[in-house]
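**Backbone shape codes:**
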Amino acid sequence: MIARFVGGGAVSAEQPVAEFRRVYKTYRDTWSRSRDITAVRDVTLRVQPGEVLALLGPNRAGKTTLIKLLLSLTRPTSGEVLRFGQPIHQRSTLGAIGYVHENHAFPKYLTARSLLEYYGALSFVPEETLKPRIEPLLQRVGLADRADESIARFSKGMLQRLGIAQALINEPRLLVLDEPTEGLDIAGRVMLREIVREIVGRGGSVILVSHVVAEIEQLSTRVGVVVKGQLVHQGPTSELIRGGKLLETALAELYQRGGA
């Protein structure tokens, strides 16, 4: 089962687990080197302990860039990005984050067990802690009976379950979910919701990137909407459905308004 948090030390209730301060990210256009493309423009956003932030927006809005910045996969052109109060060049704080990618690229020659051993080591989990953690995690995600089978034989849904397990191997304080229910059956979706609620229940945080309205409604406590690289809305999820408005309708209006 998922237990206490490890890695990166304690985080106070007041300190954001992730913070973007007036962040810009500009890329050079690979087709026309004479101009730049601004993927993120003046974004200021916080993720607090104990909340589920749904990071939403249309395709190519800048959501992936924000996640890449948070995970130190790229650096801001200007502004500041913090993890647990530390600048992103302090890579030791990455050990307190779990990430479920939209498209897994796991080495196919590994088994489920060896893959968790590999990712646990990458996340600085001590070997004496890592070994007894693997079996309960595989049981939790429904892969205990396939633990020693090559993942080359796994279906898309099984790979997604394994992706959830690898994101939890370091017992993260911040879990980042990018389209997490892709390929999951009903039981898998229920399992994921339970995991998210457990993490939040013990003071952890979740960033949810999704286009599935039901996920957003059931899991998120707050939303941040990004359109054309700019944060056009942030606030409690309940604000968007006030007066009986459908969340899907409210989001569509924000997307159109932000793109105008």
